[in-house]
Amino acid sequence: MKNGTRISAVMAEIRSAITSRRYLPGMRLPSVRAQARAMRLSVSTVLEAYERLAAEGAITSRRGSGFYVSGPLCPLALTKIGPKLDREVDPLWISRQALEADAGVLRPGCGWLPSEWMYEKGMRRALRSLARADTAALTEYATPPGLSALRQFLSRRLLATGVEASPEQIMLTESGTQAIDLICRFLLEPGDTVLVDDPCYFNFHALLKAHRVRVVGVPVTPNGPDVAMFGAALQAHSPRLYITNSAIHNPTGAVLSPVTAHRLLSLADSSDLVIVEDDIFADFEVHPAPRLAAFDGLSRVIHIGSFSKTVSASLRCGYIAARPDWIDSLIDLKIATGFGGGRLASEMVLAALTDSGYRRHMEAVRVRLAREMDNTLARLEPLGITPWRVPQAGMFLWCRLPDGVDAAAIARACLKEDVVLAPGNAFSQSLSAGSFARFNVAQSTDNRVFEALARALDKAR
Amino acid sequence: MKNGTRISAVMAEIRSAITSRRYLPGMRLPSVRAQARAMRLSVSTVLEAYERLAAEGAITSRRGSGFYVSGPLCPLALTKIGPKLDREVDPLWISRQALEADAGVLRPGCGWLPSEWMYEKGMRRALRSLARADTAALTEYATPPGLSALRQFLSRRLLATGVEASPEQIMLTESGTQAIDLICRFLLEPGDTVLVDDPCYFNFHALLKAHRVRVVGVPVTPNGPDVAMFGAALQAHSPRLYITNSAIHNPTGAVLSPVTAHRLLSLADSSDLVIVEDDIFADFEVHPAPRLAAFDGLSRVIHIGSFSKTVSASLRCGYIAARPDWIDSLIDLKIATGFGGGRLASEMVLAALTDSGYRRHMEAVRVRLAREMDNTLARLEPLGITPWRVPQAGMFLWCRLPDGVDAAAIARACLKEDVVLAPGNAFSQSLSAGSFARFNVAQSTDNRVFEALARALDKAR
């Protein structure tokens, strides 16, 4: 028998095993050596046959581990990844619920301000001024890193929190979430480990699921993550990345202290950990907290932000500030996966932020939030719902429910009365926040929120 | 020795091998059985030690194939994936070049219309009308599938090309590229095989690189992909997905014939292949060509589009029409990786498309394109540059250069004169289009394009 014929014979044998489903998709094939022994052929003949089958796509070679039967089409359904969660604490369900809710629904669990609180006046002004802008602004793609004037503005603006980033170190994105997503695509492989705060913004969980990575939570203290636990997690899990909120932590309202910031960065240095610092709540701060990116000089910290929480959620625009070589690769990834950026959205954001009314608008928002924070605390107190800590600023109040009450059950009961809550375990990787809930004080101004809560609590006790 | 101590001993042994770099990142560890033999311990002790190390992240378990040393941080640099390409035919380099070019640069190689050709008047009108819109339009996130009124409009509009998609089968995205990217995330695993046309839109190559899949090209005929080669590629490579342009093919101007459409779909049916049909050039057509999605009824075909080529590239908005269950999973993926959509961009697109001026605008564009198509042909002819076929419509002319002339060399020479070309191999997976180039007739109205070409050709001969 000629060698070509022998190779074909091996290929036919494997193909028939696959067709007859003796070899199932995902199964490892016998090693080349074992197959050669079984078929009384040389190792090189079998290897050649395997490699030809791999070139055809019938089997897949994995470096250093052998050959596998190629699998069937298996679409990525995020709801099927990880443990099955109750709907009420499923990040995607909560997000869809909040995004879908019509005007009649009350949303104390929602993560943004009511539309009447947003910078509507500035948006209308920006639209009118854009209607008179030059042709390029109205019709062209943005440049690869994004609108130069907005990057220059952001570069100056970041200095207010001590973050030094040249305009060349800034890339605009379609949103804060897209910024983190691009960074994850850039730095992570499926199976890597990522640290998050426990509790943290729940969409981080959904996003990391889409990247098929392992997520480890580090408990949050009022001064930021617990440093000892953070160090232990580095030792135990060798994570690639830590994703956190700066300024006012979501959902807890914790504020990073300088000493915590310094210790985190020392630990990160010694473990070669990259940190993503999401700064979307910067403009809600009354006293600026330390930024990891400011201490680190954008060496291993990547700083991101967006304008959906302060200017308008209807405009999609975010940014990444990072090392220049990383920005260059991130631009390639952005073009490959989304092509040109939205010049119009960047022009609108620039117009809104440089409008003299924006500062006054945010001052008014901060005052209003402080007032609603007091109001919400006063209304929660009689229900036995107490704050984990009273935040210095921002819209979120992280609260403990009365003893023994399950937040998911309360959320379920409130939903029947058209009140959407955010129960604690949606934020907790370890599912250890079952008796907590996050209240958005700007979305808790209607008495019906507290009436529905009172009824749900009564029933639960 | 207690069992706990024995487990710790194995863990210490492996850790020290990793630290001393005896075991390198990515290396497969000795099998549990071999390790147990070598250390004279039970298989269960070694397995427990391996599993604890995997839980720590120091090593990684791969189903059915053993344990591997976890790798170092290795950021995804797209330029480092695949064969090293000359800059002139590197899709990312060409895209960045075209997006960056300032006003003085001529761009016959660019993939879109000059800004003066876009629907500027409609954009200004839409901006003025949006400036008077209600608060929600200006400040809120879009609903998870995207603005309902635009989805209803698109559902009716798709009927013009025979594509039946209810508004519930349509999801809005930030762009046509993001639409394809989400579909790839949904359907592909690294190592899968994807079919593309050879030649095809070059950003498909960059996008698929980011998904780390194998790309196989199928030659294009004037009636669509070569059916026999398509069938052979299905047999040989078991691809998951085929990504193609409908209407007027980019770069060739080929138009799918009904018989090719039918045969492709029969082949796809028998191989369980999913097809993505990118319909961004629909509004340039004079006589509508068959759509795969119309023949297939959105069963295995996913239909996508955007408005960057006709309304404005400054607005980011695209869509996906697909099976309802796929749309549902795609919405989850969109929220996880980008959160809410841009309501403002959708409102602008809706305003522009429903403006009575849009139809007249596109009529004028088609007439102007036909004229510039003739002009460009007349100017290329004396240079010995001949069309592969004269397209029925659209902006692209796929041309063969004079015998023996290398398009990449010509592109290099023209770039020195501030003329950006698109040489054939940027579009060709097999790099078999070295003597071709794509001309955008709308971007080839300046004499200097042809003067620079003439000088470059002279030098090359």
TrEMBL record, chains A, B:
Keywords: DNA-binding, Pyridoxal phosphate, Transcription, Transcription regulation
InterPro entries given in the database record: Aminotransferase_I/II_large, HTH_trans_reg/aminotransferase, PyrdxlP-dep_Trfase, PyrdxlP-dep_Trfase_major, PyrdxlP-dep_Trfase_small, Tscrpt_reg_HTH_GntR, WH-like_DNA-bd_sf, WH_DNA-bd_sf
Location of the HTH gntR-type domain: 4-72
Superkingdom per UniProt: Bacteria
Keyword DNA-binding: yes
Similarity comment: In the C-terminal section; belongs to the class-I pyridoxal-phosphate-dependent aminotransferase family.
Protein name, entry field: Putative 8-amino-7-oxononanoate synthase
